[in-house]
Amino acid sequence: MEFLKYASDFVSFIISNINKKDLDKIKQIIFFPGTEKNIVFFDIQDSANLRSLLKSTGYEFFTSAKYRLLNIADQISIEASNLEQSKHKENLSEATILYAPLHALKQKQKTIFSWESPKQPSSRVLLNKRLFGYNHHGKFYPGLVQKYSAEKLGTGVIIVNSIHAKIFSDLFEKMKISTKRKEVIEH
To answer: Are 47 and 25 in contact (CB under 8 A)?
Structure first.
């Protein structure tokens, strides 16, 4: 992880010196530590021009006077392609995200709620109706799970987009149901 600080310097340099149009093409920048070579990976939409710009800028940055003495250019590799089609997709558990637009991170952040079913039958039914909806005279009334695209993982467990977590949290609090909450990032 020694090279993470140099990779972070490079990412700061790129972000401050690249034009907005090219910056918008970068989905995220990920650091993959390696035993032989560390990789700064740019997850980009396919763009040969941007790919060559990033690689040449990386070479210039790491061979500058500040980093030449540290021999960083031989230790860090710059790669740019679509992450989904990359061999690095399998190594995400070892990676560190150095840059991602906030809206992209928010969409990937999820909250898992788990709770014990209420003892009183009326509270249990009311909670289930508010969460999962109900049918009344042939008409379906959606619950919070349907309205906010949440997903039931099992009995007493749901996963929701973190943007909507407060709505679910408020429901549990209002009904005096204790929950366990876990924040996760979806890949």
So the answer is: yes
